């Protein structure tokens, strides 16, 4: 029931003033919430909800998947363990698990037939950055973006990156995933004119401080058009890149 | 001269083999550079070059403005002091200075008549964040984006933010500038479905560590669609937002 | 025996001067200690002692519970493992264990019948913050406060928090438990006019540094009426909230 | 105009449905804001607004004081410089400045006659902590609390603290201000059973890191009933202590 | 008046019970304080009080010197500026100032004739560490220790240190003052078998973090017999070394 | 095929213009890459490729060794586990594993007969630094340098280091491996006039922060001729030392 | 052979000049080493060598004990695991292991009969600090000092500490072991006039950062006569305290 | 007098045994020192001593230059201010000052005619890194190396760096000076096979922490052949590069 209907009922004496007042008092928040869900739905176009699986108890995890199953919708679970996959699979045989990205997803038939749009380039500095890159790439694909994977093009072998430049420049948005020195993001941003989302990874040893070194490198880049998400936050990068890709595709 | 022309000249014996070889050897880098400049030019559409004024010597600064003046182009100078403004003004009377954003710019007539496109919302948590926000806003305007300023809507008075929500949601991209606790970025990202660029500021005292506290808050936000630039980096946010805004406007 | 009695005995020659001197020399500290215990007892009204179980050896733990059992009093054990619960249970079958809060408590019949007073609201940003929140809530209940639990109202979904605002405002004191960006404390403090105790949790990954990010957010909040306890220190928050709640109830 | 009146007007056809709808749509936020202001007013009982003066431009500062003067209300300015005092004084001769606490306040006649209630003890470790302590104390007094000052009772001379214990215990809330090692808060919390608000100060040198050392000491205290505010945040402590003192006085 | 006398008076009815009770209640703390002052006096043998001058207001500083002058005692002021010296000199012409160590002292005739005892070696890594070393050395001398100065023997020129080894080994306690890498303390401790007090200094640049680098080096030394005081804390080292030197001299 | 040949073919009409254009466009990067590989080959003189084994999946590891085996080249694997050794050994029985340095290498017959040149001294502070030192030493040997091992000469027993000084001075380059306080690098650099590469190790406890303490000591050394690599980066030091040793041997 | 003998042989032509030169060149370092060992022996009076067991391989550990056994001397092993104890016991049945302090020692009959001298007070803040305190205490006892244990006297229950003050003051040197807030060292140093060695422990959680919080508290203490050793470095404190105790006993 | 001469005198009875013994006892350290000076002299071939001017008092500075002038040698002063230049110039008119590198040098005629050898490439990321680069370059030139300056080739405009690659590869050693993200060192090390010395600079703002960000980037680089010196330590890099350049030139 929306504001307009309540006011009509008031006008038509179909409702008590006090009751209308109560309804209206609660409404803004519900409305707000509803709007929030609404635009989210419009964003995701029926792709479903996101669950951060790590640290969830078995019971919590199952309850979430159950509720979503009843609503016949899609679900994207991140940071899932193999154990969680096996647990969920017992009840929801459709669930799919990728052991590299650790994404545990259910897709509706409608989503599987969805036509991927635009282009997001996902680059990594090394092979060890691939798990984070795959979390980003598969998140973007789950939400409907086409993804171009360009892995192991770190600056220690710059020629590999340069030979892929034309492809990278063709994307609407670039995700640069790198650990250790983390210079990849800045190098790419200096070579393209599209938004670059840098994802530091916790790969490395010694004074890399679990990714802080790469994070600082990225924040301090003097290349224009670069922004940063949290260490290892492939999901966040994939989600944000999808927002930008959709804007570019006018969706 | 591009590769094609050189090869034609070789074929037609209009050029020595050795000379052609020399030209080609240097070309890729020049090409690369040229491409870079090229797409930059397409990005900026004749708006000009960017100069980080802080720390530049008087001589360096003047030489840069001189070179740009000769090319009859525009220039965006950031972090300029009033002294630098007065210095440059002696030689280039057209130069404009904004003492809040510390932007020192020259605009060509063509640029001044340019029609601003799309919409970027620039929000701040408090009034002390305004200098950084203005650097972002004026950068975006310089590069052709329409800007909506929504200042002093920090989370200590949440109702002010909520009352502006419709306006914020209408933008293609939101820049959230905040110091101290820095929660503004996450709150906005939780309420809209457009990319949010969070800019931590060095405003605050005590355990804020020159903006690190706000930076960490923003990096750790669990709201989706949020990325972060360096502390006080208003320019970077304005530039990146323009890239996104242009994508959304298909420019 | 107090000072007054000793002096009377001196006056009445019922005690040697030297003996009185010895008694008095030790007294201030014992008195101090006694006073301390005394007001603690008055604070806790027979609810018992607190034990930080983590790291205690089995022998140490049993000795403490034994001493308390003999005195027929209550005991609140925090950070207890299931193994410690099973150990203690063998000897003290009345002991109760909550695996979420990890609280291991014995309550006397008198305490169980105690009427809970006032109101403390315990809020969390996410579901992963619940263990810390429960430590706070159950500590407050153990010491006699009524607790209102409002979980999973983090700022990424602000409407959920706003819809609970009236309830939160009705409490004498609010405990805000949040990890990751940790903005919940500041948001609540900006919406109510009661003391808010913020508890950062070590939930998160990347640049959250085991809760330091949330801690800094909370310390730097510009909302008035907010103070902070150590990361994951649910017990400390519950204890402090009880002190404030009692003041408000004039107990 | 509140919800009730709008609905009556709708019922009585005194207002267009569309107009009522518009009014109601904006209302919740205004209501929220209003409520906020309202409870703040009830908290402050006509004592006025708070301004963080540091970093405010002369123009900004004057505009704020002007607006408040017109409303004939009180104002508490913190971190004001002597220059700001002299500026404001020109236009508002009633303004008062304390060079130790750096508080710049205007009090209405009504406020000056207000009867201070309850008791807050403000303690410091050394004499150099006094400016922060005075910010706390004068904030508390401004908002109507009686304050007991107990300065220079740091743990290097424990006997001074112990000799004041009875007085400290008589307060509803204690503010412990200390720099360097910052142990004062924990020592006091171990000796009293009232809420203790610890304020680390940036006093010290070497590895004190501008107050971080004292901050960490306070956060890690194992004494019960202790919480912490930001480094040098005397205002925050005074405000929070007033909230607790009012609860204890049932105001 | 001590406990024994009070009890006698009680016994002899020379004092009211209530009054005796009051006296006894306050006594322990006064006793404690007195004892503290007492042993301090025995430590310092009439050498006087210590004042940390930095940050003291002119008024505070003068009041302290005045009180001490009246008592005809000695005073050791540390971290004094030349301005403070000139201020104090106006009122107390006997005051002496050393611009290197920044010590501002008044010595009684009795102290000036005191025979220095034992031996403390004060070593520095470089010439820039000398101000901190002099604070240590002059503190030790003020409190009655003989001091051996061995400056500029840092590990970059190890032979200089080795050539002084016999002298260093003859001291009861060694103070090793060093900035930058701070390895001096560990090197000396590896060569002698007396307590070594390491003082990190804030000398250096780059990643020395105001002395933290030297501090960490010293804390992590694997040489036995080494302990550390705060960065630049020459006074603390000189005081502690005097305690050890006195123990060795049985004073 | 190089630029010259392509141009000749163009001139002689032996190739289509378009095809030549394509070849040339890709060439610079391939050239660049090739050049890189080329000089690397000249550096390594047929010694092979380097693999960072840690974190590689079994499949990845085998594929790399397989590719190298086919090319009949040598391979240096660092940070290999015993499990990885056993895996690789199944397929490549020639592989050798050193459990101290964790180096997993295959050497061609040609490499095994190679005459080691020059001299690199590898020193350690303690016995626990030996694994990192061996990674450095064996890397240097793998790439053709003669290595002099001087272990356990830390500054806590300076005489051991001094007694080896002549040998150390005879090397072209010194690698100083040390944890805890990490002063070894500076001490050696102060005693020799050859480049010293300092390797901090993560050995230690308490405030050594996983090697950061030693790292800072080394960075802040005032001895000339010292540079630093990442914590525990024995491979990097061994590789760099080989570059210097080869320069000194004019290879 | 010492310098004197060599010179005599030169004088008497019993040795070649060249040979004498060689012997003399090496001598200073050997001499130095010898002196070092010598004074160590005089320090330890036959108590033996110290081994840091943690991280030693079984082979290394056994070789060390074997060498020491042959010399019929004593050995103090720190940070030993139970496994290491069982390993060593097989070969050296006399070895003793304390599972709290993790000290693994062999004492000669002569040492066991040694009369302990002087007095060192070892205090802890809580029961969890006892392992570090025992490492300190048993180290001091191993090297011949009498030790007074005063445990669990942290500042949260100040009266317990005060009631032990006379005993503490009777010691020549005090070791204060404390984690969490770490204020114990400063409190004791403020109450006694003997050297206090503060040992921060890694006990605690949240923002204690593995003992850094306690370390900073101790470094920043404004109490005089306090120095600090590394986190958890009980051995270092026990060794240093013994040096001071010996000085006080003139041994 | 050296060992050989003393022994001869002993043999010839030209010296007392006791006196010879005394001379020999002190000699090793003097010898060591002498050797040190000796090889330093051979390294520097009459180029002179190095003075770190910053923080030196006027008196200290003059005394050093005076001593060196008397010896008719060269001197390299680093981090000199213009004031120091003007002071020194009064007494030593030959002194030269470069206001960019802040080097204050005196060169003998012999040194000025010295033929520079080999080649060191000094590269910078931006123009603001030039002062540090010039300190490195001029240090290297002072000590006899030929220097190739390649400035402003940071990774944000990679083509500029690539176009200079041949020149960079021709050097014996490369110094890479960069602030902000600091990726230059790793990029160059990935493109050349000579030792690269990375110098982080304190240029930048926000989360660059005075150069720590660039330092960490460089330490974590996965490119081979890279080592790092302290932030802004141009002198250290120039000195070390000279050592390597000399090795390559066999000098």
TrEMBL record, chains A, B, C, D, E, F, G, H:
InterPro entries membership: P2CMN_synthase_LarB, PurE_dom
Biological processes annotated in GO: 'de novo' IMP biosynthetic process
Domain of life: Bacteria
GO molecular function per UniProt: hydrolase activity
Domain PurE: 118-250
Name of protein: Nickel pincer cofactor biosynthesis protein LarB
């Amino acid at each position: 029931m929306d504001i307009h209907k309540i006011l009509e009922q008031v006008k038509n004496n179909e409702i008590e003033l006090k009751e209308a007042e109560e309804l209206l008092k609660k409404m803004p928040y519900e409305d707000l919430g509803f709007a929030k869900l609404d635009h989210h739905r419009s964003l995701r176009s029926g792709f479903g909800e996101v669950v951060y699986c790590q640290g969830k108890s078995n019971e919590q995890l199952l309850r979430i998947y159950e509720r979503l199953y009843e609503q016949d919708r899609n679900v994207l679970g991140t940071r899932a363990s193999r154990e969680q996959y096996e647990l969920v699979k017992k009840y929801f045989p459709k669930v799919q698990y990728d052991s590299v990205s650790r994404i545990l997803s259910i897709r509706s038939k409608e989503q599987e037939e969805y036509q991927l749009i635009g282009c997001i380039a996902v680059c990594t500095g090394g092979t060890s950055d691939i798990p984070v890159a795959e979390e980003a790439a598969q998140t973007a694909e789950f939400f409907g973006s086409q993804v171009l994977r360009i892995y192991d093009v770190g600056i220690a072998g710059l020629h590999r990156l340069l030979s892929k430049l034309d492809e990278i420049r063709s994307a609407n948005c670039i995700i640069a995933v790198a650990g250790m020195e983390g210079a990849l993001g800045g190098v790419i941003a200096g070579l393209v004119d599209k938004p670059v989302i840098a994802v530091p990874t916790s790969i490395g040893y010694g004074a890399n401080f679990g990714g802080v070194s790469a994070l600082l490198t990225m924040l301090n880049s003097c290349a224009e058009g670069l922004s940063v998400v949290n260490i290892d936050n492939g999901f966040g990068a994939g989600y944000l890149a999808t927002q930008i890709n959709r804007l570019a595709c006018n969706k």
